[in-house]
Amino acid sequence: MKQGNRYGLHRVLEPVGTMPQPAWRIDNTMDLYSNEILLDVETLNIDSASFVQIKEAESGDQERIGEHMKKIVAERGKHHNPVTGSGGMLIGTVRAVGVELAGHIDLQPGDRIATLVSLSLTPLTIDEITHMDVKTGQVSIKGQAILFESGLYAKLPEGIPDRIALAVLDVCGAPAQTEKLVQEGHTVVVLGAGGKSGTMVLCQARKSAGPTGKIIAVEYGEAGCERLRELGWADEVLNLDCTKPVDVLQAVEKATSGRMADVTINCVNIPNTEMASILATKDEGTVYFFSMATSFTAAALGAEGVGKDVQMIIGNGYTKGHAEMSLNLLRESEQLQAIFEAKYQ
Amino acid sequence: MKQGNRYGLHRVLEPVGTMPQPAWRIDNTMDLYSNEILLDVETLNIDSASFVQIKEAESGDQERIGEHMKKIVAERGKHHNPVTGSGGMLIGTVRAVGVELAGHIDLQPGDRIATLVSLSLTPLTIDEITHMDVKTGQVSIKGQAILFESGLYAKLPEGIPDRIALAVLDVCGAPAQTEKLVQEGHTVVVLGAGGKSGTMVLCQARKSAGPTGKIIAVEYGEAGCERLRELGWADEVLNLDCTKPVDVLQAVEKATSGRMADVTINCVNIPNTEMASILATKDEGTVYFFSMATSFTAAALGAEGVGKDVQMIIGNGYTKGHAEMSLNLLRESEQLQAIFEAKYQ
Question: Which part of the chain is the Alcohol dehydrogenase-like C-terminal domain (chains A, B) (predicted)?
Fold first, then answer.
């Protein structure tokens, strides 16, 4: 068995010398290196921004979406959407553990795991698409994948159905970062609060800000807003299009009597919402961009363009203990469980 | 005189309802609104990432670079490079102040100012390009520009030549943010330390980290490294290509005995340096991306892909007092003055 690099460099085909994530194409042959883990894939959970883009490009046609996905994997060796730059996650069963890792990690052939690294760097093959949920971007396949030595994973937890665990783990960085950022008494604006990451962020923001905090949820569409109102986690729920920064500015001004947010968390899965996030935030406040549709330059130049002194953070999908923290949040909240059960069963 | 919106919304042509920066096209007719400032432009200071891209696209041909710039402005109403998404800044003379602002701000017709908002949102016309420095991206033109009510500017300071002041003000966010982030005793890695923002960041990092701190400068090419060694601000100067993350990882490991950086500041003006920044940084350290060539998804997914718990910050071109702070840094340091004088005279 050949020995590979810890970070998967041995799989990079082009450009040579880059890491697997930024690489255009990686080697997805399923011959195992001695420090890799081979998985039989069951479910792909495509990143929301990526799946929306593919769905729109294929006019929602399920068969064409499948072909589009297969084409990405055939071209790049990974499900790395070239338009959005994002990936997603997967559930699979361990088929083999490389000899160098066997005995040193807590995995055995037969264990069922969720990968906590992006599909945008995971060698993948798709033999067949067996089921697709076009609402959620969860796609059942027959295929295989490789996990590198540095790759994070979580064994699937007891008492939580797989699909729900995967959905939670896919966004577990967002509530975990929320826990780090939001302090008691903070005013927090959550943009895109009705989506998967948004809902978990909202739940955690309420918990972290406490009864003296003020939580403002922004969602587009009256139905989504009504669902958020029923949850009762937000002090105010605003029905707004986040690509219209001036609308968001004026509504948050009104809701906070002009004080604006200490922390704004962007979970919107469409582009052009950077400025709404910046304008909603007070000077010296923090904007946390979890949306993969965020443009670096739009954020950087946007803040400068309106002379706003805010700290803008790139959402890191990983922070220590993020998987356990998010699964515990789910276990604690029956409402959150009900939402995920309704969405992913 | 018509009244315009504080943020310049009245100039947005498409898509309607967006802010001037993300807009594809803005209105660059030079009829002044009552809350705008009209400028006669002397010098454009094109953002480094943008100018490098244009220069490469036109094989370094000065005439073609000029045509390329004019085409961008003709198409978009602003010098907003569609490839890099970035802009730059300008020096000009106040031609007229809208009636609503006159008397309420410290500007009079005839004052010479530098704009501190990006060219990517500034209505601009170029009648003629009169001089171009292809090394620095400073371009003298005949033309006009509009500053919105929210637009930041600095009157050109006494005792510092215009072109030098403009060069400093263009990147003044970077040293100002460095001052906020770097604490005494920190280990700091500056990627792209030989460039304009990199040099100022390096100077400030040395000052903020003090004698107990460790400053590591990374630059590509032996000549640039030698210049940095002569400055004496860095404890180590490493000659490395930052698009090769593994090289950077190994060199910083060696220089820090495996401890890695508390703060890594990325000032590299080419793409694909996100991973080098992440790998150079210790767990729970901070990566500050000042480079406009940064990809949001490459950073977010890159950190997750290698399981690295770092805080990643989007460089905000504006923070309170950034202009004064940077000009003072220049005044304090004869070495910095000498560098800017050599480069921009």
Answer: 202-292
Cβ–Cβ contacts within 10 Å for residue B56, how many? 9
d(CA B280, CA B190): 10
CA–CA dist A238, B296 (Å, integer):
27
d(CA B236, CA B214): 8
Nearest chain A CA: its distance from B173 CA (Å)? 9
Alpha carbon distance B14, B36 (integer Å): 20
- Closest residue in chain A to residue B8, using alpha carbons only: A306
- CB A301 to CB B173 under 8 A? no
CA distance B181 to chain A (A): 11
Among candidates A7, A312, A314 on the partner chain, residue whose Cβ is nearest the Cβ of B300: A314
Cα–Cα distance measured from residue B318 to residue B153, given in angstroms and rounded to the nearest whole number? 11
Residue B126, Cβ neighbours under 10 Å: how many? 21
Q: Which residue does chain B place closest to A152, by CA atoms?
A: B307
Which residues in chain B touch residue A87, judged by CB atoms under 8 angstroms apart? 301
Tokens of B329: 């840094």
CATH of domain A173-344: 3.40.50.720
pTM: 0.81
> Which two three-digit tokens encode residue A91?
């559930």
* pLDDT above 80: residue A326: yes
Q: Which of A150, A301, A313 sits opposite B86 (nearest CB)?
A: A301
Closest to A46 measured CA to CA, from A88, A92, A91, A84: A88
- Are the Cβ atoms of B317 and A303 closer than 8 angstroms? yes
Q: Treating both helix axes as pointing N-terminal to C-terminal, what angle do A322-332 and A196-209 enclose, rounded to 10 degrees? A: 80
pLDDT for A238-290, tens place per residue? 999 999 998 999 999 999 999 999 999 999 989 999 999 999 999 999 999 99
Residue spans of the domains in chain B: they are: 9-156, 173-344
Q: Give the integer Cα–Cα distance in Å for B224 and B242.
A: 14
**Cβ within 8 Å, pair B318-A296:** no
Whether A307 and B152 have beta carbons less than 8 Å apart is answered as yes
Question: What does the pLDDT read at residue B304?
Answer: 86
DSSP letter assigned to residue B78:
S
Side-chain-facing half-sphere of A311: CA atoms under 13 Å: 19
Picking from B341, B288, B335, the residue whose alpha carbon sits closest to that of residue B310 is B288
Q: Residues of chain B whose pLDDT is less than 70?
A: none
- The number of helix segments (H) and strand segments (E) in chain A equals 11, 14
Residue-level pLDDT at A158: 83
A307 with B151: Cβ contact below 8 A:
yes
Helix (H) or strand (E) holding B226: helix B222-231
